# Entry
Amino acid sequence: GAGVSQSPRYKVAKRGQDVALRCDPISGHVSLFWYQQALGQGPEFLTYFQNEAQLDKSGLPSDRFFAERPEGSVSTLKIQRTQQEDSAVYLCASSLEGQGSLSYNSPLHFGNGTRLTVT
Amino acid sequence: DQQVKQNSPSLSVQEGRISILNCDYTNSMFDYFLWYKKYPAEGPTFLISISSIKDKNEDGRFTVFLNKSAKHLSLHIVPSQPGDSAVYFCAARGRWVGGATNKLIFGTGTLLAVQP
# Structure
């Protein structure tokens, strides 16, 4: 497809369940980001991949959060033992260039997000 | 600590008039700034950007102004149209901020309502 695709669009999980959120970036995009957006807030950075390498995971809120991008394209964000405070929209974004590129200023292209509700 | 701040949660403007959205930042290491627009149930879409070496960038009805000494930027929309009604996020990045150099740090957003 032409844009970043995320699935599922909506996910309801009972507290304590594990969830997996999928992101298909734009084909050929080197950089992939995960963001968390709570209600009424701006997107908050979670983690960054350059191809298959996870170069920054400083935003992951706890060790219950895990992300991977094993072949440098599709990425999965996994949340173990979900808690109510994990309820948010999870946004994936990709960009053509990696960090350190001369075209440093390529914008991020976002998917429509996955809305996670933990009951 | 909120490094990018949008102090106005909402703004209402008449169609045809100017909309001015404001953003302040605290980290002097930011060197690139972007505005994103977000409709309900969609992801943010890129609108316009500005490098820290410039003080103005224009694209059609949209102009972004940067005042580095004041650590302030603004987005001007002229003339405003009902289709511009959305949440607008200011974002910033910097090579020396720490972590991934191309990650964006977002403000909390301003909801713009353009009245017909």
